[in-house]
Every structure is written in structure tokens, then in C-alpha cells.
């Protein structure tokens, strides 16, 4: 009988979708409220229902995307009770704690990681985390998410900024940049409910959430894609999307991002003058950047296959 694999992701991402497809896994997801109080009440019910789902489906292997840590609880209990294989896909957000309860979550995660079949992180800099010492942890970058076809450089002058509006994103610096470059169109994707829309310059377009088709089209139509973060030791899903679409990329200047995005990109500090300079630099070198981003896409497609082998081997042994 064929083995059954589940991929549990309460906050589904492009990485989750791609990994689940490669693993031939069934995605189990849930919509988690953005309101903290409601979310706090949601989690106990989600944990209970997820556990029942795992028991009913009788999965042999369960992958869990972290954060949120709450997704790990029903999977850990199920796999311990029924002696199934548990694998974490641990994103960098789990290691950055801003308050007391996030520190508790981190310690719980660390305790569980020591007792699971495999832990996956998306860049090797995360291996320096003390809590991952003496654990079975491997590195698996994001897979380039789109089929490798030769897209022509975007014909529009728009710059699309892939946003999650998290605390690590310099949104106000991006807005100041747009105000300083009135002749350029800036598309900001994602949920922008918290922004004061009345104060935005006229050359900023807030797209809100888009369908997969519309999101893909707006990226294709952009001459540049920008993804910024203040967080160290992290890579960005939006950057891999830009590489997959062979769009020149403006990205934050961190050691990790320099290591993983080393051609076809312009690195910038997360301050308005530096962002403006990066945009001007990119516009002056679009042809070269486009050629390099094609090379980067091909190199990352090949390297991902090598990184995926330890995961594939584990599943084969199971």
C-alpha cells in the first residue's frame, strides 16, 4: 500500500505548495485570524480538529511548516501515539522572539526537534542556532516556483514590492522612496489594511490579495521586483519568485541574502537614499541583470535537486 504523506501549514506559502507537490503530500491548511484575541481562541480548536484529521486519514509521514508553533502540537502528538514519522520545515521566524510567550514557543519547538525524524531549514546560516545543536537538521532552499521558461524583461516601468507588512519590513522607507521617485509606479502586494492610505503618494498602488493568476501577471509586467527585510539569517520567498520569473531583483543587503542571491540582483540598505540608489543602479543595468538572473535561476534549480536528496532518501527508507 502506498505511503500517505501530509503537509501541515496553517499559513500556507509558495514554499509549502511546492514542497507538498514534490513530496506528493496532501496539504492540510486552515485560515488563522489576523486578530490576536481571535487567533488565540482559534488555535485550540484548530489543534483539536487537525489531530482528528490526521487520525482519520492515517498518514504515515507528516511535514509541518513552522511557524506557527501551534501546528506542531497535533502532529507531534499524532506521530508519537501512532509511531509515525514527523518532519519540521522550520522557517527563520520561529527563532526571532519579541516577547515572553514567543520564547516559550521557541523552547517547545527546540524540545520537539530533538525527537523527530528530520528538521529542515531554508538556509545554512540558521544552522548556527544553538537550539539546533545535536539535531538532525538539513538545509533545503526554496525551490524555484515557476517553470523555467524564457520570459522577456518586463515592458512596464512599474516596480512591484512583494510585501507581508511584517515588523521586519521597512514599509515606511519604501513609501518615502516612492514619494521621491514620482515618475515610477510602485505596486505593493499583500494585505495593506494597516497602512494610512490617505498619506500615500499617488504613484503607489496597493494591490491587496491577488489570485495566483493576477499575482503572477503583475510580477511578469514589472521591470523590477523588490523584497526587503530587516531580519538577519533569513531568505525571502518573494526573492525566489523573482528569480523564477527572471525579473531583476532589489533585495536587502544582509550576509545571508548576499550568499544566496549573488547575481542578477542589486543589494540595498533598508533606508530611502540607499533604495533610491539601488533602483537607479538597476534601471541602468537591466539587460545585464536580466542575463544574470537567468543564470541564477538555472543554478538554483540544479542546486535544489541536490539539497532535496537527503529528504528523498529519508522518505525512501521510511
Describe the structure.
The chain has 318 residues and is α/β, with parallel strands linked by helices. The chain has 2 domains: 5-140, Rossmann fold (3-Layer(aba) Sandwich), CATH 3.40.50; 159-300, 3-Layer(aba) Sandwich (Rossmann fold), CATH 3.40.50.2000. 42% of the residues lie in helices and 16% in strands. It is built from 10 helices and 12 strands. The protein has helices at 14-23, 36-57, 72-82, 100-113, 171-180, 212-220, 237-244, 255-260, 272-284, 286-317; strands at 5-9, 26-29, 61-66, 85-90, 118-121, 137-139, 159-161, 186-189, 204-208, 224-227, 249-252, 265-268. The strands form 2 sheets. The chain has a 6-stranded parallel beta sheet. β4, α4 (100-113) and β5 (118-121) form a beta-alpha-beta unit. α2 runs parallel beside α3 and α5 crosses α9 (272-284). The longest helix has 32 residues, at 286-317. It is globular, with a radius of gyration of 20 Å. The mean pLDDT is 87.
Topology:
Elements: E1 5-9, H1 14-23, E2 26-29, H2 36-57, E3 61-66, H3 72-82, E4 85-90, H4 100-113, E5 118-121, E6 137-139, E7 159-161, H5 171-180, E8 186-189, E9 204-208, H6 212-220, E10 224-227, H7 237-244, E11 249-252, H8 255-260, E12 265-268, H9 272-284, H10 286-317
Parallel strand pairs: 1-2, 1-3, 3-4, 4-5, 5-6, 7-8, 7-10, 8-9, 10-11, 11-12
Helix pairs in contact: 2-3, 5-9
Amino acid at each position: 500500500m502506498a505511503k500517505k504523506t501530509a503537509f501541515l501549514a496553517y499559513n500556507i506559502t509558495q514554499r509549502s505548495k511546492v514542497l507538498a507537490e514534490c513530496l506528493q503530500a496532501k496539504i492540510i491548511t486552515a485560515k488563522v485570524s489576523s486578530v490576536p484575541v481571535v487567533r488565540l481562541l482559534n488555535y485550540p480548536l484548530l489543534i483539536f480538529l487537525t489531530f482528528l484529521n490526521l487520525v482519520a486519514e492515517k498518514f504515515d509521514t507528516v511535514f509541518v511548516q513552522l511557524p506557527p508553533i501551534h501546528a506542531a502540537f497535533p502532529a507531534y502528538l499524532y506521530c508519537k501515539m501512532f509511531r509515525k514519522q514527523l518532519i519540521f520545515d522550520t522557517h527563520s521566524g520561529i527563532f526571532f522572539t519579541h516577547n515572553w510567550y514567543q520564547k516559550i514557543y521557541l523552547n517547545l519547538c527546540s524540545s520537539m526537534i530533538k525527537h523527530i525524524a528530520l528538521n529542515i531549514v531554508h538556509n545554512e546560516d540558521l544552522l548556527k542556532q544553538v537550539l539546533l545543536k545535536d539535531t538532525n537538521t538539513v538545509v533545503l532552499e526554496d525551490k524555484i516556483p515557476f517553470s523555467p521558461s524564457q520570459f522577456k524583461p518586463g515592458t512596464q516601468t512599474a516596480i512591484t514590492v512583494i510585501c507581508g507588512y511584517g515588523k521586519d519590513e521597512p514599509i515606511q522607507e519604501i513609501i518615502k522612496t516612492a514619494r521621491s521617485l514620482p515618475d515610477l509606479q510602485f505596486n505593493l502586494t499583500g494585505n495593506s489594511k494597516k497602512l494610512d492610505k490617505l498619506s500615500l503618494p499617488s504613484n503607489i498602488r496597493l494591490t491587496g490579495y491577488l489570485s495566483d493568476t493576477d499575482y503572477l501577471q503583475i510580477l511578469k509586467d514589472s521591470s523590477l521586483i523588490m523584497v526587503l527585510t530587516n531580519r538577519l539569517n533569513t531568505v525571502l520567498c518573494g526573492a525566489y519568485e523573482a528569480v523564477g520569473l527572471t525579473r531583476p531583483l532589489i533585495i536587502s543587503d544582509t550576509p545571508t541574502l548576499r550568499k544566496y542571491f549573488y547575481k542578477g540582483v542589486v543589494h540595498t540598505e533598508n533606508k530611502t537614499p540607499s533604495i533610491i540608489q539601488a533602483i537607479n543602479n538597476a534601471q541602468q543595468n537591466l539587460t545585464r541583470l536580466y542575463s544574470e538572473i537567468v543564470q541564477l535561476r538555472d543554478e538554483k534549480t540544479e542546486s535544489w535537486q541536490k539539497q532535496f536528496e537527503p529528504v528523498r532518501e529519508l522518505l525512501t527508507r521510511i
